[in-house]
Structures are given as C-alpha cells and as structure tokens.
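Session log. Operator J.P. requested a structure for one protein chain; no other inputs attached. Running the standard single-chain path with token output.
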Amino acid sequence: MSTEMSTATGAAPDTGRMLTDRDLRSMYWRSTFLLGSFNFERMQAMGFCMTLMPAIKRFYPSDKAQQAAALRRHLEFYNTHPWISSVVFGVTAAMEEQRAKGEDIGDDTITNVKVGLMGPLAGVGDPIFWGTARPVLGALGASLALNGSILGPLIYFLGINIIRILVRWYGLKWGYERGTAMVTEVGGGQLKRITQIAAITGLFVMGALVAKWTTIIFPVVVSKVETEDGGTTVTTLQNVLDDLLPGCAALGLTFICMWLLNKKINALWIILGMFAIGILGAWTGWLGL
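Structure written below.
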C-alpha cells in the first residue's frame, strides 16, 4: 500500500531519503551546465545553486522563505573540478535534507563542508581526469589515427565522455548516500591514495607510449670504413645511440620536458620550442625525418 502511495504521489520510497531518482536525474543534468555561468567573482557558484534547486524545492516544498535562504546560501564562492563536483552536490543535498528534517545544522556548517571538500576533490580530479585520463586516451586515439583507423577519434570521444558521465552520476549518488561521512573519508587519506595510484598508472602508460611513438633520428655520420669487398660501412650517431640504449633519445627528451615543466615553463612554449628545434634540425641536417 505504501509503495502504491509513493508511486502515485511521486515521493521517494520510505528509505529515509527525501530525494527521488527523478530529483537526482534533474540535479545530474543541471550539473552538466556547472560552468555555464562561470565568472571570476564567485567562479561556479551560479551553477552550484542551479544544480541544488530540485533538492531545495523537495526539502522546502511550501516554504518560499526557506527556499530563498537556501538559494542565497549556495550562491557563495565555489570552485572545484567540474566532474567530481557531483560528490559535493550529493553531500550538500544530504545536509540540506537533515536541516529540513529539523537537525541543528547552521549556514556556516554547510558552507564549511563545501569549502572543506572543494580543495581535496580538486586535487584528486585534476590529476586523475586532466592529468591522466585525458592525455592517455588522447595518446591512444592519436596513435590509432596515425595508422588511418577511425577508432582513434572514437576511442577518445567515447572514452572521455563515458568516464565523465559515470563520475558525475555515481559521484552524485555516492555523495548523497554517504552524506557528511564523506567529509571524514576525505580527511582519512583515502583520496590521497587513489590519486597516487592514478598518477602511477598514468605515468606507466605514458612511458610506454613515449617509447613506442616518439622517434628521434640523428643522421650525423660518425665514421666511414672501407670494407674488403670495396664497399663502405657508414656509422651514424643514431647507430651509436641504438647500440648503447634503443630509444634513449626519446627518453632524454621526456626527461627534459619534465624538467622544464618542473621549472614552471608553460607547456605551450615547450611544444613551440620542439617545433622550432625540429625544423631547424631538419634544415641543418643533424636531425633526420
């Protein structure tokens, strides 16, 4: 009977939670526009407030004053990684729910939890998604595209969007179900370990891609030896390097790029520098094609 009434009224099942799946789906779709009103005064605050609106309407259905106060509360400064931000939406919705039920949760508490989650989650999202998933998928896609395979762009487009959708949706549900316990987990160092695992995995994959797809040729002739049959054996600098360690030039270039990045040199300048050195090297003949 209770199930029939819940279905008829559109209310959530009696699980102690007030948000329905429809509310969560609405919050998910709104969260995809988080950066739609990005500004340098409050960053993602407008997008955050718009995402929370279905939850606020559910928690304070007939109290316009409480709805207005909640909207004003979520127009404070907010900025973190846009995908993993769904976890913060879920945690904040759980806190608003407890407040609507009469728990003694003040404005400062909700704001402090949001602020406390912004930094750690941005520190997790940036290296995992911007620093690992996107370059790895891009490199895999580019390597296939170089061979003329249509799978190259498809792997990048589908892969990055599947990750984005899953992280946004399950992050929202997880944050809502875990509620404020999520704050304790963030402080417990679990996210730090996840970040380290993702960083190691990304570096391993990128190292393998560098060894396979980076080619540097030094055609400079080191020696010429006349053979007994009248021929000539030519030894180039590339032959010497290959005898010492195959791929050592690509490895050295990788270390140089890492050193420059650690020196805070803009990645765009490094790329332009490699273009210039490559063109100059091919023109003078000390780099081969």
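Operator note: Confidence is low (pLDDT under 50) at residues 1-14.
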